[in-house]
TrEMBL record, chain B:
InterPro entries, A to Z: MetI-like, MetI-like_sf, Phosphate_PstA, Phosphate_transprt_permease
Organism in which the protein naturally occurs: Isoptericola peretonis
CDD domains to which the protein is assigned, alphabetical: TM_PBP2 (cd06261)
Membrane topology classification: Multi-pass membrane protein
Protein name: Phosphate transport system permease protein PstA
Homology family: Belongs to the binding-protein-dependent transport system permease family. CysTW subfamily.
Record function comment: Part of the binding-protein-dependent transport system for phosphate; probably responsible for the translocation of the substrate across the membrane.
Gene, per the UniProt record: pstA
Amino acid sequence: MERDVKLSRFTRAGSAVAVGALALTLAACGSDPAAPGAESTGGPAEGSDSALSGELSGGGASSQESAQEAWRAGFQTANPDVTVNYDPVGSGGGRTGFTDGSYAFAGSDAALDEEEMTAAEAQCGEGGVIEFPGYVSPIAVAFNLPGVESLNLKPEVIANIFSGKITTWNDEAIAADNPDAELPDSAITVVHRSDDSGTTENFQAYLHEAAPDAWEHEPEGVWPIEGQESAQGTSGVVSAAQSGEGTITYADASQISGLGTVAVGVGDEFVPYSAEAAAEVVAQSPRAEGTADGVYSIELKRDVAGTYPVVLVSYLLACGTYADQAQADLVKGYMSYLVSEEGQKAAADAAGSAPLSADIRDAVLPSIEAITAG
Amino acid sequence: MSTATIPDPSGTTEATARTRAALTGADGARRRKDRTMTVLIWSAFVVAMAPLVSLIWTVLSNGAARISMDFLSLSMRNIFGGDPSGGIYHAIVGTLIITALATVISVPVGLLAAIYLVEYGKGVLARAVTFFVDVMTGIPSIVAGLFAVSLFTLFLGPGVRMGVIGAVALSVLMIPVVVRSCEEMLKLVPNELREASYALGVPKWLTIVKVVLRTSVAGLTTGILLAVARVIGETAPLLVTVGVTDSINFDPFEGRMMTLPVFAYRQYSQGQATCPGGESATCVADIAIQNAWGAALVLIVLVLALNLIGRLVNRWFSPKLR
């Protein structure tokens, strides 16, 4: 038995080169990207915040993902030693993770119910729970009809279209409110989300409240009617609607480029969607009573004139006290940035959300400022 | 056939022609069988290759455009929306560290278990080990992930995410593969080599180290590399154990890490970004999809590179017979 010296020497050199090359690519020049422009400084004005460091992890509603990305980028730019993570696991997962202590903060498309609130209070300790509608996004009712850019539709008519009772575009119910529009006699194709989604739930909640007679389905994340066209995710329904004529769908308002939109009937007038009108409906809605100081959940009023009532309201959850001082400081800093005008503007730019009203900000800021370790 | 062109005595030509006629002409059924089988085997080969070629081609054509120095050397920290300036450095680092750690855990355990089974194991215990290794091979990967999560939750409380938990989950998947393949390789070592070694008075343990392992080193490396390739593309167990992050983390014992499969999955599920001012150099609507393809390509190249290194290690260490 003898080693093949020639081959061995050759492969030895080859291996050395390969290993060296690998080591080089690994060790070389890996870094975080440079700050993308200095316009967002993040965090409240005082400079002491840059002393923050550590890792903060939360999770929850996937509807907040784009906004959370913008917030994290802004906050991490202002505090380079901080890393914030957000797992878009869905609202239910976020609430569970928050109540069992896995997540320091969470996002949820629905406010905590009583049972969850009890569990969350037990987890948070004496500081209690902080809950507020930090992310509000208008849901547009969008359609694809050549030559028609806007339609006025009353809630009952929208409900009847989506439940399949109104089947053609030139139906009298539609024509009555749109005397100027040229409506074809083609069939209406409803496109809905095929996945479980907060958009579906909030859209149904609107139909259920504004047109209880026409929409009898209980609001939930899954679309209740079978046999209609469906697609996965917001981008899926939008592209399905864009590719077919005579389609109508509901989607996050920031994503419906190229489609006509519905001005929704509120009282006697019709309101087209806009971030401002959506913010207004949240500002006009009363705060739910009988809750703790830190909890700002709202009872949406969907009939206030001049407001856009089809909105997705997504809550942020945090604790009043944390076991760890560093964690408390991080949550405090992140939440204060998130509700600040700057944070809300960042989310509006990135996700098309409606900025938080000054009233709500003033109401929740004291509880956020009071976050301590205990 | 060249026989026809070679000039040679007439009798031989005639005999050759007769033989050829007998071989090729007489039994048409056998020839047809031969042709059919040839065609079948070739088409089976093509069918087996088609998915592989198609996969590599799809990933290459979709991912190659995204690969650049920035893509390989930057993380996604503070990158959001349609911003194309991010990269996958954090995911490459995470994948390499976690897979290396999983290999460090599973290779000693798996190799020693295989040596036990081949060289020492007898009776009930050996049969039980073989049985449970077989059972472990069939564990769905998410179960391995949940096992690791619950194990560490017992000691560290809920919500803990770090690289080493992912490594433990991966080694649960990796150990049975290592055991099985190493066992087969060790069985291939001829018994005569062991007997010769014993005859020279070499103790059993030294025989195993110097003769058995040395002889089978090529097969062992291949088996271990197959096991690495098996786990390096795992998504689900890493998603629940290591979590996701946008930043670079070199420490598997502290904080979350990103890995390439999880990165590709996360980017893919993000879908289209919104570009308020239309598409431009700073806002690409389908950047997340492009990132996912790029990460997939890098992952494939990584596995390929590991295999190449394995080949080199083989040549380097295995004994050469002249």
